[in-house]
């Protein structure tokens, strides 16, 4: 009888095989990265619609479409969320995530193609706003499923979803800058076609990330052991989370009150030519996106002692930026590009940091059996803050003369 060598015996020994804890840790690291891609993917189409300010100006020279897009998207989004909360059912993860991404891809293809088969500003406006509404409804189902799923995982999943949201805004801004730079300044339509095409391909990455996530052992185990009552929105749950959810909504409200509308309306005071060729608003939008990512990344690495009891300290002070940035946009007091850059940077940094911490600390308020429902509730309050911010932004713009609505 041939005996196995000592080296083979040592390799087969349980002591040198990866432990369950090690495998779980590796699985969780992979899962966190996949959640980052999913967070990036699900918000990408909204960011993609907000970024090409120069293209919308070409299509609608007498109408500031950014404000209208923001309102239509967010109103449709929040109304769909109300229906989702009212139904109070466990999300059908595969249907909502894969289906949501598929609808987003179709919209990102149809919107630019409509330029070639529609005529007249009114037809284009109906097409763009209708597509935005459809995009919002699909994103609501996708959004609630992603947040609910991430809430069931250990620490790191929610943070990476938030980081992915920030990256989405940054990448769309980068896409727009690169595609615009590839064409002469007067070929806005051609550069926009490339921009939307690359965007549609990017969203497909969200589907791939979800399918890869489903194959991980930790994902199968998490979904298998998740309590069936996770979507029960009982009064006791709201008592635990309501205050923190309101702070979460306020953190997004502040950002959307100023971005994209006010940010895109801040003119260049030192380089007027950047206003004429459309580069200045794109650069400010890109700066905001970069700052937002840095803020979200910082929050994922260090909370600075912020807890669910003290998160208000990073949420409420941000509202001081509202009058400052309105002054910069209307040419009062702050009429230097350096000041505008400072304000936009502070808005992005503080927004990324506050929004990430505000959503993460909500999970600290509940038991494991309530985290699935809490994830859906957080997604609702995020979108509530977004729609309130976007709506107030339109009112602010009209009062300040920023948008010809």
TrEMBL record:
Coiled-coil boundaries: none
InterPro entries registered for this protein in UniProt: Eqnu_transpt (IPR002259), MFS_trans_sf (IPR036259)
GO cellular component, one term: plasma membrane
Membrane-topology descriptor: Multi-pass membrane protein
Localization in the cell: Membrane
Keyword line: Membrane, Transmembrane, Transmembrane helix, Transport
A molecular-function term among this protein's GO annotations: nucleoside transmembrane transporter activity
Transmembrane regions: 34-53, 65-86, 98-118, 124-149, 161-178, 193-213, 241-259, 279-299, 311-334, 340-362, 374-397
Family per similarity comment: Belongs to the SLC29A/ENT transporter (TC 2.A.57) family.
Name of the protein in question: Equilibrative nucleoside transporter
Organism: Aphanomyces astaci
